[in-house]
């Protein structure tokens, strides 16, 4: 059946279809050729422009050695008719085996992510992070930055010499294990002075811990507090037989492991009263504050954080 002129936006609809399918340039031309042969395209509909579809956006990107970065964030967002407000976006930085990436994420997930920089053959260290922040003009936009614990401490110049007090917020003593379960009020960190002086790349108030790492950290403390010969700990060992004994004792679990445990009804049945109360509190924090859809009653709390 031939598509008639009752579809005035047929070109834009086909553009959306190509985007949703994630077709390559060759795939787009093949699709266009097949549709045209079957008379399923209205006059004026073109697929040939996909051969050079990236030319419109190349002006917003630059390359410096192994780094490819975006040189004009506001200009690129205007191309997509997106109103740009730096306070509505956060910068996510993380490293992989052979690359370092920086991506802009919308706070309400209303828009797709915007890649800002990509470095290959570089490591997650102070100098490389300094370079990428300089290239993307971080001081101009001043986004909030989220990342794992190693990334945040590196941004604060804590890459060397902070084994005793690793936290960038307070003077939590990693070696005072006896106080970890009794002391709740630790002094705020007033200075960042290890053996040598390294300046901050980002102010501490601009840093955010990822919800996933908060979940894993809470679960780690819960597992470490369990009696090692109790029924609950024995159930964990049978639940994850491939994990080593050392990982069990230190509470080393992944995000998928945490989800499996919290959805397992048998896990809560093996707990004592105090253990079940702590686990219920943990679930409540996750559901209210650390999931994609947060409870409206806790919005002032996580906005303040």
Structural notes for this entry:
The protein folds into four domains: 1-52, no CATH class; 58-159 and 201-209, Nucleotidyltransferase, domain 5 (2-Layer Sandwich), CATH 3.30.420; 162-193, no CATH class; 211-290. The protein contains 13 helices and seven strands. It has helices at residues 10-21, 25-37, 73-79, 126-135, 138-141, 149-155, 211-224, 231-239, 245-250, 255-262, 265-269, 273-289, 299-304, and strands spanning 61-64, 67-70, 89-95, 99-106, 114-120, 144-147, 207-209. A seven-stranded mixed β-sheet has the order 1-2-5-4-3-6-7. A hairpin with a 3-residue loop joins strand 3 (89-95) and strand 4 (99-106). Helix 7 runs antiparallel to helix 12. The protein starts with 9 loop residues before the first helix and ends with a helix. It comes from Araneus ventricosus (Orbweaver spider).
